[in-house]
């Protein structure tokens, strides 16, 4: 650790074609922020770099679908993402974007340096071409039938049904997503980074030199290297991105995987004129925070790019996380199966730290984990409220009650007191070790153990029982509780910054460095604390049920959108059809059939007569809402008794894909008794 003078932390650039969700936060941004805040508390030279990834095919696809320009799309989502990060408290030193002029200049210059140094190979290959639109098609512009599972809407790079990685030429019956036509194969020239040439170096650098990397990261790297690396194209036939800065490259841009990681460099350039100190000084430590889908890019491809360029430091660690699922299902932006950060911030004001806590306590550090709203509620109510909030509140309320908020003097310490105070220093060492090795879930648990220590100490010492009989002893007990509270504001600062700022206000305490953590005299005798409030509040079942229902409604809408109409029934004769007498009528009265949930008893004016009809629509319509509604009714249906009521006809209803029933009614008001033909 000591050989580094500074730390440069990068966080994966979120793709600017949609808002942020909890999977992004748990995988990348919450752990990156914890680590950066921790190093800042230690007064280390540290930068946390972020930005939006604004190039690539999905951007152009979304722009085409919405009838706007790619710049319109990235402007919209960059603004939304940046605002969400700021509101949530991710403490970037800079949050940039890859459509900026500085980035274009930096990425273009990086490519040109490698090109001039002969680090690329040129290759001509056949790629699909849309003759109507006169353009080569990126993999995501091609859709067809998956050769593995026969899913008919597989993309040219991956089948989203079975997850198989594909190449466009493997698709059965490929179609251009732009014109809908069958594309043709046409030759095109591109520049490739020959990763196979870097294979021996990568084996030594990663497999021998970085065995301390997380098993999921090291294992994926080993699998890629052992399977043999191939040259990868660094350019693309596209009109949105960083133009390839060489002759004969008209209509070509830098491939987004080559362009995006250079965004870390260009963002640092925008932040400080001393950017080279962080990127090119061997005494700088580079750490990439990413999700597991980006491991190959940050551990194999980007380091190979940096190695080829020759003047940059290489990542010291890449603590990638696995994926976070949602309520037992994979998070999916296309299916709207997600908890969106901007919506959470609106619906849970002042609870930024609750989400940070839940995502850290359940972080997918070694395997995929599942976020559930019930677990979120339990983390808040059983841990933040019942453990941390409970201890702090009891300590401060008793201080107000006994000493008008003034910190009492510390008296003689017994063995329990000494052991309790010593444990603060022990926990500090353990938390440091966990944070230094990127085990944030473990670090948070250890930090919360300080609050558990305080609760146990209070419960064992019972100052409320001793106050009248041994007031001097109570002063010592309360002093120790207040010292624990002050230490909590330092130890939990990286994890719960909003809450610790609030707690510092309660105890009238300034923000201190990590080096002060472990001291047992942070609050001197006579120090005046303020009137406390609740640090956290319980989240009620109704709030959680509303969030679960929101997801269930999403699932229902997805199922409805994908539903296919039932096939037609067997043919009937024209004479059979003509026997049906369907008329327009108006509902005059409506009431629930007793002891049923589904049946309504209706009185309907059919224009012929006024008759009773029993209909199973009570789950979808309240009686008072449908009086006066004009409907279509089969008037010559043979009467039948339903729950003892003679029903004389049937109302025509349409069943939607989600199972709801809707009236089949005339477009405008017509005379009751009009025939439906």
TrEMBL record:
The UniProt keyword set, sorted, is: Aminoacyl-tRNA synthetase, ATP-binding, Cytoplasm, Ligase, Metal-binding, Nucleotide-binding, Protein biosynthesis, RNA-binding, tRNA-binding, Zinc
Task: Report the domain of life of the source organism.
Answer: Bacteria
| Motif 'KMSKS' region mapped to chain | 330-334
Extract the CDD domains matched here. Answer: Anticodon_Ia_Met (cd07957), MetRS_core (cd00814), tRNA_bind_EcMetRS_like (cd02800)
Chain sites annotated for binding ATP? 333
A Pfam family? tRNA-synt_1g
Q: GO CC terms on record?
A: cytosol
Q: Does the keyword Ligase apply?
A: yes
Q: According to its UniProt record, which reaction does this protein catalyse?
A: tRNA(Met) + L-methionine + ATP = L-methionyl-tRNA(Met) + AMP + diphosphate
> What is the UniProt remark on how the cofactor binds and its stoichiometry?
Binds 1 zinc ion per subunit.
Binding annotation for Zn(2+): 146, 149, 159, 162
Q: Motif 'HIGH' region: residue span?
A: 14-24
The TRNA-binding domain is annotated at 576-677
**Major localization class:** cytoplasm
Q: Which Gene3D superfamilies match?
A: HUPs, Isoleucyl-tRNA Synthetase, Domain 1, Methionyl-tRNA synthetase, Zn-domain, Nucleic acid-binding proteins
What does the record give under GO molecular function? ATP binding; metal ion binding; methionine-tRNA ligase activity; tRNA binding
**Subunit details for this protein?**
Homodimer.
Function of the molecule: Is required not only for elongation of protein synthesis but also for the initiation of all mRNA translation through initiator tRNA(fMet) aminoacylation.
So what family is this one in? Belongs to the class-I aminoacyl-tRNA synthetase family. MetG type 1 subfamily.
Q: What's the protein here called?
A: Methionine--tRNA ligase
| Gene field | metG
